[in-house]
Amino acid sequence: MPTDPNPNPNPDVNPRPARRPATDHAGREPVPDAAPVPDATPLPDATPVPDATPVPVVRAADAERVALAAGSAFHLLADGDGAATPPGGAFGANRLVLAEGADGARPHVHARSSELFYVLAGTAEFLLGDRPATVTAGDLVVVPPGLPHAFGAAPGHPADLLVVMTPAVERFGYFRHLGRIAAGLDTFDRLLPEQERYDVHFTDAGPWRRARSGGPR
């Protein structure tokens, strides 16, 4: 009976495991044993969301329309006086549709709010400080507090703008006043005492008029 050339002197101890071959039959190094994947940490139970105040949805058909000259119009969406947003809320919003070449606003500045203009369609001209800019559909203009600005539809083009102010300021009354001016029912002079209330502070209109006429600013 043949004898084991390497007998295990201690049968209670496992024999030394065989070495892993340096390469497989194809000459490639073997892939090392994968490390065990630890159990994933369980996610904590989600905190239930309490019932919230219903979120306002302003339908296009329900937005108040304020007519301006030559077919232009404001569509009032959200205001800082509690219309569609809580008083002192995060933002106010309106849609302004301008007829071809129509002015949108003469030069003015906001002391407390930033104003954002997103061009939905058409082409608009802006005067930002002393810098003119022409914007088209998909462009965004952000006006920080303290920057004088004016805007209108570019000559030969209409413009459709989504306008957002943050933080919210009572503005619907301002837009309605502009509508009454356009209809000949009110005057610009009567709007001047309300500049602080609406955070609309008018500045020199000369540079805007010259920019619109193509003359030197």
Structure description:
The protein has 217 residues and is mainly beta. The protein has a domain at 62-212: Jelly Rolls (Sandwich), CATH 2.60.120.10. The chain is 11% helix and 29% strand. The chain is built from three helices and ten strands. Strands 1, 2, 3, 4, 5, 6, 7, 8, 9 and 10 form a ten-stranded antiparallel beta sheet that branches. The longest helix has 11 residues, at 172-182. The protein is globular and about 80 Å long. The model is unreliable at 83-88 (pLDDT under 50).
Features:
Jelly Rolls, 10 strands, mainly beta, single chain
Q: Any idea what the CATH architecture of the domain at 62-212 is?
A: Sandwich
The helix-strand sequence is: EEEEEEEEEHHEH
The helicity comes to: 10-25%
Distance between the termini: 115 Å
Q: What kind of sheet is the major sheet?
A: 10 strands, antiparallel
CATH topology of the domain at 62-212: Jelly Rolls
How would you summarize what this structure contains?
This protein has 217 residues and is mainly beta.
Helix and strand arrangement:
Layout: E1 64-67, E2 73-78, E3 92-98, E4 103-109, E5 114-128, E6 131-136, E7 140-143, E8 149-153, E9 159-166, H1 172-182, H2 195-198, E10 201-202, H3 206-213
Antiparallel strand pairs: 1-2, 2-3, 3-9, 4-8, 4-10, 5-6, 5-7, 5-8, 5-9
